[in-house]
Amino acid sequence: MSKITREVLEELYHKQKKSTRKIAYELSVGKTTIEYYLKKFDIQRRTQKEASKLCSKEYAWTRGLTKENDERVKHLARSIKEAYKIKREKRIKEIELKFGKPIKDLLIYLYWEEKLNQEQISKKIGFDRKIIIELMNNFNILKRPKYQYISSLKGENHSMFGKDWNSFFGKAEANKRRAEHSKRFRELTIKRIKNSEFPFFDTEIEKIMAKELAKRGILFVKQFGMDNKFVCDFAIPFLKIIIECDGDYWHSNPKMYSNTNLTHDQKKNTQRDEFKDKYLKERGWLILRFFESDIKQNLNECIFKINNAIESRRRELNNSQINEVMK
After folding, report:
1. Spatial contact of 95 and 127, defined as CB atoms under 8 Å apart
2. What is the pLDDT of residues 172-226, one digit of tens each?
3. Using omega within 30 degrees of 0 as the cis cutoff, is the peptide bond preceding 199 cis?
4. What angle do CA 318, 320, 325 make, to 5 degrees?
5. Burial environment of residue 291 by CB neighbours within 10 A (0 to 12, 13 to 18, 19 or more)
6. What is the average per-residue pLDDT within 2-13?
7. Helix axes 299-316, 204-215, angle to 10 degrees
8. What is the pLDDT of residues 293-317, one digit of tens each?
9. What would the pLDDT profile of 145-184 be if each residue is shown by its tens digit?
10. Helix (H, G, I), strand (E, B) or coil at 61
């Protein structure tokens, strides 16, 4: 015991960075004895993180070994993965109990209703951001377009905060820039939709409709571009028929939502639909719109209406007109 002094322990523990277990082995005493004297001499202990780093260097028995070539490493990795899984599931249950919702419903609510981004959700519920991203991917929770996220980052420190283009460039130049920006963004959006590029993809109801149309032998074009102005869900070009699949919420199904109590997004989408329908009708197109609930609950009736429209358009258009349209 006479060997255990403050100077010896500081030399071995702090300067040589040896673990308490190794010091105990060299001094031929127990590990708890070393821990007792460290406390007695008021020698500051390493944090668990610092100790883990030193331990990994000192006892690197796994160096050069992998799960593929060593059963011990494979077992260790499996044990760590299982422990992490149990810990995560426990944390998820704690969050669900705290907020009173299943984790999936909670993420949807925070992301779509409260308009929080993934970093803000992480801070609010106390979960790592990477896990939030992973959970949202696992639950197939739709993401907002990237431009909406970028817009949400703007605040008081942004150079354009509280200002508009008119104050920067003058009214004439601002209008010119708006027109150029609108045209460029519209063309990019149409290109992405046509090519199924991120962040655009077929919705669930579009997939249902496409599958049923193909099953019935109805020829169609998916994501049909119209004069570089917008894209239609489905088109039968030679008969000039457009088929749109509208979500109940985003397109304000009148059976569910009153026109006097719509959100900003619902009003915006409704106005866009009206403009789209007017533009198409003026150019001789027939527009068939089906809401999400109709497609999911009574798909046969939707197809019945489409078949009737096809027969009606065939009678209206003679062969020469059809050939002209196809050209």
Report:
1. yes
2. 888 888 888 888 877 777 776 666 554 456 788 999 999 999 999 999 998 888 8
3. yes
4. 95
5. buried
6. 87
7. 60
8. 999 999 999 999 999 999 999 888 7
9. 765 665 666 666 666 666 777 877 788 888 888 888 888 8
10. coil
Rounded Cα–Cα distance for residues 144 and 198 (Å): 11
Which residues on neighbouring strands pair with residue 152, listed in sequence order? none
Q: At what angle do helices 71-99 and 118-125 cross, to 10 degrees?
A: 80
Task: Please give the Cα distance from 10 to 16 (Å, whole number).
Answer: 9
Report the C-alpha gap between 50 and 56 in whole angstroms.
10
Long-range contacts at 180-186 (CB < 8 A, ≥ 24 apart) = 186/228, 186/229, 186/230
Task: Report angle CA 87, 89, 92 to the nearest 5 degrees.
Answer: 110
C-alpha count within 13 angstroms, C-beta hemisphere, residue 277: 11
Query: What percentage of the chain has pLDDT greater than the value 90?
Result: 41
| The token pair that represents 259 in the structure block | 């026109």
* Residue with token string 């403050």: 6
Domain 202-326 classification at class level:
alpha beta
Specify the DSSP element, H or E, that contains 289: strand 286-291
Q: Residue 151 is encoded by which pair of tokens? A: 């817009």
Distance (Å, whole) CA 284 – CA 279:
9
- How many angstroms separate the CA atoms of 289 and 244, rounded? 5
Show the CA angle centred on residue 250, arms to residues 248 and 253, nearest 5°: 35
